Amino acid sequence: MAINQARKLGLLGQNILGLKFSFDIELRYGAGAFVCGEETALIHSMEGLRGEPSFKPPFPSVSGYRGKPTNVNNVETFANIPVIINQGAEWFASIGTEKSKGTKVFALAGKINNVGLIEVPMGITLREIIYEIGGGIKDGKKFKAVQTGGPSGGCLTEKHLDTRIDYDNLVEVGSMMGSGGMIVLDEDDCMVSVAKFYLDFIVEESCGKCTPCRIGNKRLYEILEKITQGNGTMEDLERLKNLSAVIKDTSLCGLGQTSPNPVLSTLTNFWDEYLEHVTLKKCRAGQCKALLHYDIDPDICVGCTACKRCCPVNAITGDKKQAHIINQDICIKCGACEEKCAFDAISVKLEKRIHTEHGND
Amino acid sequence: MEMIKLTIDNKIVEVEKGTTILKAARKIGIDIPTLCYFELCDMKIENKPGGCRICVVEINGRKNLAPSCITEATEGMVVNTHNIRVLNARRTVVKLMISDHPFDCLVCAKSGNCELQTIATKFGIRDIPYKGEKSTYRKDTSPSIIRDIDKCIMCRRCEMMCNEVQTVGALSAVNRGFKSVVAPAFEMDLEKSPCTYCGQCVSVCPTGALTEVDHSNDVLRALSDSKKTVIVQTAPAVRAALGEEFGLEPGTSVTGKMVAALRRLGFKYVFDTNFAADLTIMEEGTELLGRLNRHLSGDSSVKLPMLTSCCPGWVNFFEHNFSDLLDIPSTAKSPQQMFGAIAKSYFADKIGVKRNDMVVVSIMPCLAKKYECQREEFKVDGNPDVDFSLSTRELAQFIKQANIDFLDLPDEDFDNPLGESSGAGVIFGNTGGVIEAACRTAYELHTGKTLEKVDFEALRGMDGIRSATIDFDGLPLNIGIAHGLANARILLNEVRAGKSNYHAIEIMACPGGCIGGGGQPFHHGNSELLKKRASVLYQEDTNKTLRKSHQNPHIIKLYEDFLGEPCGHKSHKLLHTKYFDKSDEVSIHE
Q1: N or C, which end of chain B is more exposed by having fewer CB within 10 Å?
Q2: Looking at the domain B3-82, which fold is it?
Q3: Three state DSSP letters for B453-464
Q4: A172 contact partners, CB below 8 Å, separation of at least 6
């Protein structure tokens, strides 16, 4: 609509503003691939080719769309231009830090009271965003981490809360500005699962052109899966580190070069949680279902059979008015029984159940 | 030419500006391993997607490792090709690749010739710590090519060959992430795709993802059947490359040993496709002169230029893409099929063997020949003129299996009558060779004069598109030559647009002609090797006293005893064919 209006006003099209200069804008819609945020991939998809990046140089500003010099910018950058034109560059530069001028839009989400899009001056601290703008953590829970930069950003912790946010500082602490995503995590979030969640997305969205990103991220995901299943070993943790470093070091484009960030930043900042998963087979956040089990306290259970009747997989046995038992081999840890129990006889235990009720391994 | 200096592994090297680190390193004897990178420099064929990441190196001052195959060297650059960081990255990448590759090396058609295997060996990979899902796909078999893309490593060489060099567009990357693989659109069967079976994808595939359909067992079965008379024909390009499979220097002619080996394998008669090439010249040359004369006398119904039709990949290509021009290729069958037709008629009668008891095997540098011999129009009551076509590689394998010490074999001669050939027949294997052979005969038939200088140097060379005007005693004959189907497409588009002034065009699908065919020993990107193969054929031509097809005494006798005259009634029935509109097969329907 804006384009049509601009055309009517003579701001776009042939001989704009009555000058010899012609300028027009055409919008093209992408098919929705994450990797097409990489500029060469975006250009290739516009050219009708497979949306995958190519080696730079040549940079798009030298040879881009159909070999012509091409300027690739984000919507946010373009949105800044009218403001800068109207208010002046000096005004814009007066906001922000020395190296990162102006404002930045973040998509604030997660376990936080006020979610939504925020525009803040560069140089603001995470603490200001989370506790002042965001209104603190939901339900009075404890802040654990904030994931910034989209799927290939990193997780920052309490010690980073007073970091002034700009492009360089975020990279320095192991994350990035990226898409401007900001997801707040609390004590109920398992950091291994968080890393796995992002890797799952990366595996789906890698274009598949280069080996480290195509196969490496898949293997990273599989190792994380193994750890959350309670089958991880110390060697797996070493593998995670090495593989992440190699993927960063050898991948073709920005996607692969940053894709291990969720793993690396959680390994750095939440090493203890990884260790717990691997050595104690414990997930402190209770997110890794394979690492917890439901238990019925025989002293409290009155044998009302409510849990037995609601169990979707018939894992609970026991006669009326007798303490019931959960068969751990069958239990899918859905938690329905715990919710149903009127006597609080059923509770979650945060470790992997090694021996089942039937005595077998 | 601006020169720059850089340091690689503490050695200073001076190179032209624009040179890649890989080439700069190779200049001083540092061989950085590569996998997706591929080049046939004389033919301007290159594949540099920068995708495999095997060739990464460390550059001082750069944050991450750089792929040496596409990173340009710059003045003062300091490169390390093998420190711990680089080696660890490279080994990890190879391990990742193998972690998504079948472990069936023992039974893989490419074992021993697989570039991934070579790199794994070189790096001493002993274990794969990454045990996870492997990508699995449907195995796809066509008449010529087998796709086992579980083994695809996404080097994209085949895609480059199919799209850029051949403009066939049968193969491209599909899916994304871990599932990405090179396949026909919508993962349809290759047989239903626009594939021409040229086999160039197979000839560059570094692994066993693309291989040929192997007919050796069928041949072995026929050879062991006492009721069958099994005869063999060998294409010209085979003798120029077969030796490579036995460790001989590229460019070594092994005609005599090849004949000896085929005899020891049990073939009753060992004949030469070159004989049929001479026959092709008689037919195609006569057809050209006929069309030319009618054209010159003002018959506007005659279409020129005439296109050669020896190459089955090329025939498939124009049936798919230029079905509006089906009346311009020569109707002459390819030498393989002419041979089969004559063998199962004239020769079978001569030795008193029934058609169905004769098995004709061809040894070809080509994979499209496997498809060609299965075409319905080349069968009589379901019995094909040529029963099985083996590639040069399959023949080598066959010889090795039979414990024949190839290098120790004496030189033997082909059998007659279908084994005698002229030098003109030999050069059929090179780009430009068919048209040169045709010119030798057409000149003499047209002018009635003796051609003194039979070497048409103007028609030779490796440029993708070449043209020359040959003086036919006052009649300037414009000749066009293209090898590689992208080049063919350029010439054909000119014809379609009415902008072509050629009288005749020779087209071969494979770069270099048959010497670079999809069934030849793997050249691994060595274009010098292709040139050496070409020189073998030109040398063999030069060494012959008989250098013009129409002077081949057995050809003359064949016409006297059996065929009558070139392009006559019997020739038409046995030696000519027609083409089909297959444009449907290349347009995608719902």
Answers
A1: C
A2: Ubiquitin-like (UB roll) (3.10.20)
A3: CCCCHHHCCCCC
A4: none
CB contact under 8 A, B133 and A218: yes
**pLDDT interval class at B587 (50, 70, 90):** low
Mean pLDDT score of chain B, rounded to an integer? 95
Backbone angles phi, psi at A298, to 5 degrees: -65, -20
Domains of chain A are 2-73 (3.40.50.11540), 103-186 (3.10.20.600), 191-280 (1.20.1440.230), 292-349 (3.30.70.20)
- Closest chain A CA to residue B87: A246
Residues of A in Cβ contact (< 8 Å) with B169: none
β partners of residue B66: B57
How far is A207 from chain B, CA to nearest CA, in Å?
5
Give residue for tokens 């002169």: B289
Is the confidence at residue B443, as pLDDT, over 70? yes
Instruction: State the CATH class of domain B217-575.
Output: alpha beta
> What residues of B are annotated to the active site?
284, 287, 310, 330, 369, 372, 377, 514
Q: Which residues of chain A have pLDDT under 70?
A: 353-361
Give the pLDDT confidence of A296-341 residue by residue, as tens digits. 999 999 999 999 999 999 999 999 999 999 999 999 988 899 999 9
CATH for B98-212?
3.30.70.20
Note whether A135 and A113 are within 8 A (CB).
yes
Between positions 31 and 90 of B, the ones with CB within 8 A of A are 48-54, 56, 64-65, 67, 70-72, 85, 88-89
Q: Which one-letter DSSP state was computed for residue A8?
A: H
Counting every residue, how long is chain B?
Answer: 590
Mutation target vs A (from B68, B69, B93; most A CBs, 10 A cutoff): B93
Write out pLDDT tens, residues B36-78: 999 988 788 999 999 999 999 999 999 999 999 999 999 999 9
Under an 8 A CB cutoff, do A207 and B97 touch? no
Whether omega before B417 lies within 30 degrees of 0, making that bond cis, reads: yes
In chain B, domain spans? 3-82, 98-212, 217-575
